[in-house]
Amino acid sequence: MDTHHNPSAVEMGDTAVKNVDDDGRQKRTGTFLTASAHIITAVIGSGVLSLAWALAQLGWVAGTIVLVSFAVITYYTSTFLSDCYRGPDSITGTRNYSYMGVVRAYLGGRKVQLCGLAQYVNLVGVTIGYTITASISLVAIGRSNCYHEKGHKAKCSVSNYPYMASFGVVQIILSQIPNFHEISFLSIIAAVMSFSYASIGIGLAISSVASGNVGKTEVTGTVIGVDVTATEKVWKSFQAIGDMAFSYAFTTILIEIQDTLRSSPPENKVMKRATLAGVSTTTVFYILCGCLGYAAFGNHAPGDFLTDFGFYEPYWLVDFANACIALHLIGAYQVYAQPFFQFVESNCNKKWPQNNFINREYSTKVPLLGKFRVNLFRLVWRTCYVVMTTVVAMTFPFFNAILGLLGALSFWPLTVYFPVSMHMAQKKVQKYSRRWLALNLLLWVCLIVSCLAATGSIIGLIKSVKSYKPFKSLD
């Protein structure tokens, strides 16, 4: 029960007061470390392993410049967003618990609904995409063992549906963790996993380069007339730019992460430090993975060099890396699902405050884990949500192409437009001043990138749908 609606909580003395914040909500315990872990879990997805492919489309120079540019843009706009966590007076203003809340405080009107639509469609999309990606990694373990036994040319077909179902079962259990504040341990495990598989990918690429077994690379990437046609070069370059832009997109859940931080030191200062740590760490891994992967495979770099078998041996190391990806995605699913869970539940609480099914919590003791709070509505609705995402993932295994399109459509509003607009409102940036012109130029450049990436994703999606065969094993 929320102590904000329970006046007797304060009357119970110091203990109750110590357990609540200034607004009567549960006391926040997040730190720089937990916020950094949430960011790294959200940012370093298994997409890191596709950056070699992205670099192959753009080449050494453009690829590296684009990657670093998006790191800088994401960090820059994230600092704007973290300054807006509290109301217009950012030091003592009231807290905003969600991205929509921040937009409501600074911009209001129709923009609040647009922000909610972009954010929650993206969050739901990511959870479906993660179900597919986790199953692909688990299938890769089975295929890796098969290739090791029967040779690299063998036909190793493995169904990914049992893996998707197993992933769903694990998520049903983890989804009962009441809120974002209590999943720090998951994020820390997931962050360690993401470092593990990215490091293995880098290590395998280094050993490949050291052995002299390398592909042909170019300053401008794939060669027209040799590797690709002129049209393919254009569309694949757009897709690669989109991949790089979205590989940093964690602003969707930045406010929700910031809302887990203790009130002292000021949340925005800690969040900026955590963002810098998260984005810097990620960029180092991205550049290493992208550049070393491109050096190893050249212009024929696979879409994902662990699941698309850029490497076959040592098979046990490839297996371990793929297991790390699956474990990372178990935690990452929760990081993206919890804000959506919270959104639905808080709206239901407001609409039906007297309903016991929605609001009443029961305490139960779980062996080894101690006390656990159970809420019937949470149990039923979150279970239904996980079942729904799992069924969609099973039905549309090309959903990752759809995810590229969702990423393209939500990147501009959530990572660039809203943070920049709120910053201009907060700092009262004068129209047509130098700063105003520079920020508007940033908005336009990023909008063009989003549109080009969306076009590339649509073309990729059309190809995926054409070759789509429902309920087919991966081989």
From TrEMBL:
Segments for region (Disordered): 1-23
Residue intervals passing through the bilayer: 32-52, 58-76, 120-141, 185-206, 276-295, 315-336, 379-396, 402-420, 441-462
Compartments, record wording: Cell membrane
Classification via InterPro entries: AA_transpt_TM
Keyword tags: Amino-acid transport, Cell membrane, Membrane, Symport, Transmembrane, Transmembrane helix, Transport
GO cellular component: plasma membrane
Domain Amino acid transporter transmembrane span(s) in chain numbering: 29-462
GO MF entries: symporter activity
Major location category of this protein: membrane
Domain of life: Eukaryota
Pfam families referenced in this protein's UniProt entry, alphabetically: Aa_trans (PF01490)
GO biological process, alphabetically ordered: amino acid transport
Family listed: Belongs to the amino acid/polyamine transporter 2 family. Amino acid/auxin permease (AAAP) (TC 2.A.18.2) subfamily.
PANTHER family, per database record: OS05G0424000 PROTEIN-RELATED
Record's protein name: Amino acid transporter transmembrane domain-containing protein
Organism, scientific name: Capsella rubella
